[in-house]
Design goal:
The chain has 495 residues and is an alpha+beta fold. Helix content is 41%, strand content 19%. Bound molecules: adenosine-5'-diphosphate, magnesium ion and zinc ion. Zinc ion binds next to loops.
């Protein structure tokens, strides 16, 4: 969308990521998704009087890993606070969160801006907090149900600086953060199921002005596409207000997916006073160096580093490297394929890595992205390597290989190896002169006009004849061989 060029959009994102622990943040209840209502609760998360919270150290470790991965400062001393508010799905009347002393501060995430340049986005803080329950209004006459299964589930809130300048940058930031938490194994990044949620703070200002404008906070954004659309709509709305001499009111607004607009939810005057105060039932969280060091050692190779290594080691373009490292599974798979191909075709390893990338970025990537069963698209690495090997050795053409790949994907599990498919269907490339000769003769006889024109000097008709021979052999002829033989026949033989 083209915004008024005199204005600049300013965006800061608050992401709530559900951590992948087995139990809740302060009790031993399960975090498993999909259990019957109120089947995963206990006196602690249901806030019975007199019970005490016990901090889940696995959740702390996950938040620390995330903090290290964004190069943040891990506070050796942090504390929990009570954020007080009333809501039926919050039985305690307060949420345990971190306020003045969060676990992580001053981090960063690198994104690709609209000009393809790398851009640093500051991360103000990451703190831990509990999720609330869920109110169910549907199918309940004259009332609501409350399901507390989610109450107490561990969340990390990742707050960015207001460093983003377009909806595209906001989208890329979310993608990068989601890839990162998935690499770390600390969150599944599922926006539709609500395990990775985002609120967007949006303001606009005249270009060249230093002061930020008044912001609105957008909620109910459950996909990256909706975050981007909501930001575009909201920026436009604020610019229209300013252009017509009005002011932007600081408020929380809800994204209406159906209408594609944002609507006011509550204004600043109605904003909650949360009366934050330190949580009296939990001691301050103190971390020692050994623990942080050991978690640092456990970090996997991170997406940015892996992307750079793919460019350096495999000679991939920045784009290919970005796509192939966008998921840990995909990147691991690519490296397995490269390793297999290198074993089969030891010579020319860098070229092979590039060829393997091309094969992965075609149909296979489409299947991978579209199929919820991710493992199915990732055919056995040895199979893909064998396919590439067969192309390199001219056993099959690239076109046939594409077909064989699709057959492998469609075949029962475990998928049939390409060599078996080629054998069974007789798809081997034909390079034998005798066999090709017959096809060439037949084609030349069936196209006397083109033949005459070729002989009269229209040599650009050569690809036409090659195409006909390929068609006659159902793609099995070796195109290079056909080319060579055809030129000989066309110039030398009278038919
Ligand atoms: P609050 O305490 O009300 O949540 P914060 O200062 O914590 O406010 O900011 C919340 C988010 O809003 C952060 O992501 C921050 O980057 C963003 N933000 C702050 N000011 C602006 C602004 N003028 N325009 C857009 N985003 C902003
Ligand atoms: Mg906030
Ligand atoms: Zn519990």
């Amino acid at each position: 969308m083209a915004l008024d060029p005199y204005y600049e959009v300013v965006i800061g994102l608050e992401v709530h990521a559900q951590m992948l622990t087995r139990s809740k943040l302060f009790c031993r209840c399960s975090t498993r998704f999909g259990a019957g209502a109120n089947r995963q609760i206990c006196p602690v998360c249901a806030a019975f009087p007199g019970v005490l919270p016990v901090l889940n150290q696995e959740a702390v470790n996950m938040a620390i890993k995330t903090g290290l991965a964004i190069k943040g400062r891990i506070n050796r001393l942090s504390e929990f606070s009570r954020k007080n508010y009333f809501y039926p799905d919050l039985p305690a009347g307060y949420q345990i969160s971190q306020y003045e002393l969060p676990l992580v501060e001053h981090g960063e995430l690198w994104i690709d801006d609209s000009d393809g340049q790398r851009k640093r986005v500051g991360i103000t803080r990451i703190h831990m907090e509990v999720d609330a329950g869920k109110s169910l209004h549907e199918g309940v006459a004259g009332g609501s149900w409350v399901d507390l299964n989610r109450t107490g589930i561990p969340l990390m809130e990742v707050v960015s600086e207001p460093d983003l300048r377009s909806s595209a940058e906001a989208g890329d930031y979310l993608k990068k953060l989601r890839v990162l938490v998935r690499y770390l194994g600390v969150c599944d990044g599922n926006m539709e199921e609500g395990s990775f949620r985002c609120d967007a703070n949006v303001s606009v200002r005249r270009r060249g002005h230093d002061a930020f404008g008044t912001r609105c906070e957008l909620k109910n954004l459950n996909s990256i596409r909706h975050v981007m659309r909501a930001i575009d709509y909201e920026a436009e709305r604020q610019i229209d207000l300013l252009e017509s001499g009005q002011r932007v009111r600081q408020e929380t607004r809800l994204w209406d997916v159906g209408q594609g607009v944002t609507r006011p939810m509550r204004g600043k005057e109605e904003a909650h006073d949360y009366r934050y105060f330190p949580e009296p039932d939990l001691p301050p969280l103190r971390l020692d160096e050994a623990r942080i060091e050991s978690l640092r050692q456990q970090l996997p190779e991170l997406p940015d580093a892996r992307r750079q290594r793919f460019i350096a080691d495999y000679g991939l373009s920045d784009y290919d490297a970005a796509v192939l490292t966008a998921g840990r599974e995909l990147a691991d798979y690519y490296e397995q394929v490269v390793e297999q191909v290198a074993q089969q075709l030891a010579d020319n390893a860098p070229t092979m890595a590039k060829i393997a990338a091309n094969w992965m970025m075609g149909d296979l990537l489409t299947w991978f992205n579209d199929d919820p069963d991710k493992t199915r698209a990732l055919l056995p690495a040895a199979h893909l390597a064998q396919l590439i090997d067969m192309i390199q050795r001219n056993t099959i053409s690239g076109k046939i290989a594409k077909d064989v790949l699709a057959r492998m994907y469609a075949s029962a599990s475990p998928p049939e190896p390409p060599s078996a498919i080629v054998e069974r269907l007789g798809l081997q490339q034909v390079s034998d002169e005798g066999a090709l000769e017959a096809a060439i003769q037949a084609v030349l006889q069936s196209a006397p006009d083109e033949l005459a024109r070729y002989r009269a000097g229209q040599t650009r008709l050569l690809p036409f004849f090659v195409g006909q021979v390929m068609k006659a052999t159902r793609g099995k002829a070796n195109p290079a061989r056909v080319n060579e033989l055809l030129q000989r026949y066309l110039s030398a033989t009278e038919t």
